[in-house]
Specification:
- By secondary structure, the protein is an alpha+beta fold.
- The chain has one domain (about 20-155): Electron Transport, Fmn-binding Protein, Chain A (Pnp Oxidase, Chain A, Roll).
- It is built from four helices and eleven strands, in the order αβββββαβααβββββ.
- The protein has helices spanning about 5-15, 60-65, 80-85, 95-100; strands at about 20, 20-25, 30-35, 40-45, 50-55, 70-75, 105, 115, 120-130, 135-145, 155.
- Strands 3-2-6-9-10-5-4 form a seven-stranded antiparallel β-sheet. A two-stranded antiparallel sheet has the order 1-11.
- The protein is globular.
- About 30% of the residues are buried.
- Bound molecules: flavin mononucleotide (FMN).
Length: about 160
Amino acid sequence: MMQKSNLPEAYAKAHLPSKVSLAVTQKPDGNYNLITLEWFMRTSIQPPMFAISVGHSRYSHECLQDVRFFNLVFPSLEQKELLTLSGSKSGREIDKFAAGDVKYIPGKLAKLPVLSDAIACFECEVISQVKSGDHTIFVGEVKHSWKNDEKELFFFK
Ligand SMILES: Cc1cc2nc3c(=O)[nH]c(=O)nc-3n(C[C@H](O)[C@H](O)[C@H](O)COP(=O)(O)O)c2cc1C
């Protein structure tokens, strides 16, 4: 029987094992930051686009106001610890690339890191943003894409 529910219990029903991503942004000082994201989606076929929803309190939000590029990274199974680190610590306090010993090569768009141990990476330029309550949806146009055939996609349960 369908019944009226409080919000957390209805959210829990809708929360299937789902894909999780990492977004790389550039800090104002030129270093890089990482954020774990569950709220992202493809939003256009041509031109190719991804949207990411970033909380106003996140340091990544501040970074994206300044440098209008992000790399959307699809992590591999071996990057579980990096997802935990990037989803629990803020780039205001730590350098997640150093703390997570992250291996990368520079991207082709704005030289933002393309994570070597991920399974795919999309280099995006922010072309619009929409305030959505306490988050902002940043819409990025994909300019370059990368893949790694040797790794398996991480799923969040
Ligand atoms: C599994 C998981 C999914 C998350 N999804 C999002 C998300 O979609 N949007 C968001 O703003 N924060 C999300 N977060 C929280 C941020 O990753 C977290 O607040 C992070 O420490 C912010 O880092 P920053 O301050 O360096 O930007 C998620 C965290 C976890 C663990």
